[in-house]
UniProtKB/TrEMBL annotation:
Family, as annotated: Belongs to the binding-protein-dependent transport system permease family.
Record keywords: Cell membrane, Membrane, Transmembrane, Transmembrane helix, Transport
UniProt name for this protein: Peptide ABC transporter permease
Broad class of where this protein is predominantly found: membrane
Protein species of origin: Shinella yambaruensis
Localisation: Cell membrane
InterPro entries in alphabetical order: BPD_transp_1_N (IPR045621), MetI-like (IPR000515), MetI-like_sf (IPR035906)
């Protein structure tokens, strides 16, 4: 427990400058973009004169210099204030808190399914490298991984929602259904089947290939050859020695793919009209809402850092050499 706490503290402290760099670069990139939220707002209402635009920029602090706005933003961020959304006329933090749970539910469900099925199928493929089962699973995973996510989502929606009418086509739940408790949970689960399935299929193929490749390399190590020489059953060797050690690179890949899965949710949420983090980012871009987009990127960076921190803790628990090596260094 002490080693895990020490590792967590060290990782958390090292993440602070990373987050600060992300915030500053994001702010500067958004400031150099053409136009601002006031321009987008005036365009949406049919236009306005220069006096109205100037008044709105003064009201939202957009008339100040870039350095002054950056300092004000960093000061507000230290108080957990992500600013004010011009497009929605609401605090950015409130919008993010409202949309984030839907994205976390989508990502969490897809990650759990992909990890469970990917690791299981990877064990089946890697248990006998070069066998017919191994070749079939490897080929199938390559085909699935090569399919674009948006195309896979559209095909699944057309087949299961439009033609067969087995599942809802869009949304996170039935609007104004009045359902509560288990009935509402079942309705949300039905709406999530297609988007979660789309996202999970792609990463199942990736995790399968990583697990299979890891097991293929471990079969040639000395301790596995020794276990086979002792006469241990193949099932015991696979589960207790080969698969267990092959999980380490898979867990590392899980942390590395956190940002990619968060980015992939933007496409999935757009296809299935899920009011989540991804669609909020799309709306922020279309509305040129720099404050909202900057808040979304900051929260996304925090989520990726937290996921990688959790991965480091799990990795240290599975491999005691991690914390020991760092302490010795």
């Amino acid at each position: 427990m002490t080693r895990a706490l020490r590792l967590t503290t060290r990782r958390a402290l090292s993440s602070i400058p990373v987050l600060l760099i992300v915030v500053i670069l994001t702010f500067l990139l958004l400031e150099t973009a053409a136009g601002d939220a006031v321009d987008a707002y005036l365009l949406s209402i049919g236009g306005g004169d220069a006096a109205i635009a100037e008044t709105l920029r003064q009201a939202y602090g957009l008339d100040q210099s870039m350095a002054a706005r950056l300092w004000l933003y960093l000061s507000a961020l230290a108080r957990l204030d992500l600013g004010w959304s011009v497009a929605f006329d609401r605090p950015v933090l409130g919008l993010i808190i409202e949309r984030l749970p839907n994205t976390l539910l989508l990502m969490g469900s897809a990650t759990a399914l992909a990890f469970a099925f990917g690791s299981t199928l990877g064990i089946l493929a890697g248990a006998r490298p070069g066998s017919l089962r191994d070749r079939l699973l490897s080929t199938l995973s390559l085909v699935v991984y090569a399919i674009p996510g948006f195309w896979l989502g559209l095909v699944l929606a057309i087949v299961f929602a439009v033609q067969l009418r087995w599942l809802p086509t869009s949304g996170i739940e039935t609007i104004a259904s009045g359902r509560t408790g288990l009935s509402r949970a079942a309705d949300i689960a039905a709406h999530l089947v297609l988007p979660v399935g789309t996202l999970a299929l792609i990463y199942t193929a990736l995790f399968l290939r990583v697990m299979r490749a890891g097991m293929a390399g471990i079969w040639r190590l000395d301790f596995v050859l020794f276990a086979r020489a002792k006469g241990l059953s193949r099932v015991r060797i696979v589960l207790r020695h080969v698969a267990r050690n092959a999980l380490l690179p898979l867990i590392t890949m899980l942390g590395l793919q956190a940002a990619a899965m968060l980015g992939g949710s933007v496409v999935i949420e757009s296809i299935f009209a899920i009011p989540g983090f991804g669609r909020l980012a799309q709306e922020a871009v279309s509305g040129r809402d720099a404050a909202l987009l900057c808040g979304i990127i900051v929260v996304s960076a925090v989520l990726v850092i937290l996921v990688n921190l959790l991965v480091d803790i799990v990795y240290a628990a599975l491999d005691p050499r991690v914390g020991t090596a760092e302490r010795g260094a």
